Amino acid sequence: MADRPSRFSRRAVAVCLLLVAAGLPSRPQATSTTDTARHTVLRMLQLNLCNSGRAGCYTGRSMAVAAEVIDTEAPDLVTLNEICQGDVPALRRVFAAVHHGRGVVSAFQPAGDRPSGADTRCRNGQPYGVGLLARVKTPDIPGGVHRGIHPTQDLADPEERAWLCVDVDRRLLACTTHLANTSYRVALAQCGHLLDTVLPTIRGNSGSVLAGDLNLRVGGDPDVRSCTPPDHQRVDDGALQHIVATGGVTICCRRSVPMREATDHPGLLATLVIDDRPPT
């Protein structure tokens, strides 16, 4: 589902159509990623685990269910919202086992805490924020992780929302964020700044994709499409989670993944087709 017509290569769209026609296997092999001279195909999974221990949606079961989903779906990229710092290495072990023998990188960015000037904390005392897992060919690219705190925040909310990006083999800048849930206008400003300013500044010649709980809806006031640039493509889970990609990255084969009421959001799984040809 795209917000506006986008100019993607006919070949990339054809790859997507072939994927849709073939259907997504229920348990893809870890070697299923297509890597050709012209295109790379990656599967991306967005999860909001509500695992701070402080929110009403906390069940204590979301990490176990997330591990099962990662093992079953074998995504190449996983973006994580509402997690504790220790959740990243725990899920990285599952992710690395799925991609046994291949390079894996992980990253975490805590949300800020305005009253203390330090990090927001989970109930277990660990920093709370967002994370990302990626399968890569070259895990030690210098400067491959980018992170920050959004410049616009809801001053009535002590939590300062954060963003996080990882450079995936210089082919794709993969990013995640969890935007403000106390003010739709603040969430819209954070979304616009990230897509219009932050990502274009750091992605270079590569495409980029942002996945996360944006706390904005299609048809809402404001509408999430208000912060999506014209040449970007977007899919969602029917509610607040979205995947947004720049030109040169085609999104297809989106579906929701049940989380068995372990959290208040489903997983959002999509296939990305990246045009590897140099820009003309």
Automatic annotation (TrEMBL):
Note whether Cell wall biogenesis/degradation occurs among the keywords: no
Give UniProt keywords alphabetically.
Signal
- Which residue positions does the secretion signal occupy? 1-30
Domain spans labelled Endonuclease/exonuclease/phosphatase = 50-265
Instruction: Supply one GO molecular-function term.
Output: catalytic activity
Ribosomal protein found in the keyword field: no
Matches recorded under InterPro entries: Endo/exonu/phosph_ase_sf (IPR036691), Endo/exonuclease/phosphatase (IPR005135)
Q: Name the chain's protein.
A: Endonuclease/exonuclease/phosphatase domain-containing protein
What species is this protein from? Micromonospora taraxaci
